Amino acid sequence: MTQPTDTLEAMNGTTRPRPLLDHSLAELDALFAGFGEPRYRARQAARWALKRGVTDFEAMSDIPAALRARLATEFTLSAPPVLATTAADDGATTKVLLDLGGGAAVEAVRMAYDPDEPLALGRVTVCVSTQVGCAMGCVFCATGQQGFTRNLSASEIVAQVLHFTRQGRVNNVVFMGMGEPLANTSATLAAIRWLVDADGLDMRARGITVSTVGLRAGIRRLADEGLQVGLTISLHAPDDALRRRLIPTAGGTTIDELVAAAREYIERRGRRVTFAYALLDGVNDSEEQARRLASRIRGIQAHVNLIPYNPTAGAGLRRPSPQRVRAFHEALLAEGINATVRMERGVDIAAACGQLRTDFATRADALTLA
Ligand code: SF4
Question: What is the Å distance from ligand 1's center to 69 Cα?
Fold first, then answer.
């Protein structure tokens, strides 16, 4: 556990405050105890930071002035500035590009609907990024082609959700933006804890989904959390050779191993797992490939989410025709596989794992500078 003295990092003989939300609640309890404060003060500060979204300790009006002043020297609270905003679907989808400083920026998206249950009205979903860039190198993904810059901290992930909760209620959070969440597992899990904690945003774990290319150690750690967080595993191919071409870093993990990991997650967490499958014209979208996919995943409580590819500049890949999408979908259904085609609204958010950043970069004409 972090000791109180760890709060301040030594830098050239000086110290600097750290983001409050980069500490866990247990760490804050210990830190506040070190300040001689009762335990509930840490939870009070957390509630102000999360439920009220304040970015100034002075605003924490039920915390004594002396402690507020101390908190301002020990911790930071900030809202990343918005570099750009764009909206689609008559405002149902809003994307923001948030400035993390040092030249780093990430996208977060608000959808005034639930992309997995489009008929469930009134649900607001936020899609967050977990890394600047990504090391996974998926050939169809613009972020993957740009490479990895750095991991986000827990506070930087939570800040994306807070950006939208300051504007209104958020029901679901999907970890499907830039980056591979389970390549940044510690920060991802720390952010999830702040989302679900009663003294945090107090969200339902079932409203949270982590999307991964299939990092098994991370899947296991997610299961260890004991929360009913949803899991989406990107397959994108019915055989390992093709999957390795599409997700070069997947080389060490086979589809059978991923299906086993999914089965274990379902058994431990009691949640259905979703397999994401980006449909690429002439690459992985034949009916025969649908039947092979069915044979690989049959028998487990999983759902296939088909995502007609959303072309990004320079990828050289195409979106299949609606007829090919329908044929693939029907072939899976005929094999008894539970499958849906991702709803088409605005940008294709789920497929947009990593595509969003480029969407901003290449559609400058659509941007409204904040
Ligand atoms: S699709 Fe997701 S995991 Fe793959 S390179 Fe892009 S951001 Fe990374």
Answer: 42
Average per-residue pLDDT in the chain?
87
Q: Which of 109, 180, 317, 358 to mutate to test the pocket of ligand 1 (most atoms within 8 A of CB)?
A: 180
- Whether 368 shows a pLDDT value over 90: the answer reads no
- The residue contributing the CA closest to ligand 1 atom 4 is 138
What digits encode the pLDDT tens for the residues 273-296? 999 999 999 999 999 999 999 999
Answer whether 306's CB lies under 8 Å from 328's CB.
Answer: yes
Contacts for 39-47: CB closer than 8 Å, 24+ residues apart:
41/67, 43/199, 45/20, 45/71, 46/20, 46/21, 46/194, 46/197, 46/199, 46/200, 47/199
Burial of 341 (0-12, 13-18, 19+ CB in 10 A): middle
Q: What is the pTM of this model?
A: 0.90
| Dihedrals phi, psi of 14, to nearest 5 degrees | -110, 180
Neighbours of 145 (CB within 10 A): 18
How many angstroms is it from 234 CA to the middle of ligand 1? 10
Q: How much of the chain exceeds pLDDT 70, in percent?
A: 86
Atom of ligand 1 nearest to the CA of 142: 6
Count of CB atoms situated within 10 Å of the CB of 298: 12
Domains of the chain in start order, with CATH, are 4-76 (1.10.150.530), 82-369 (3.20.20.70)
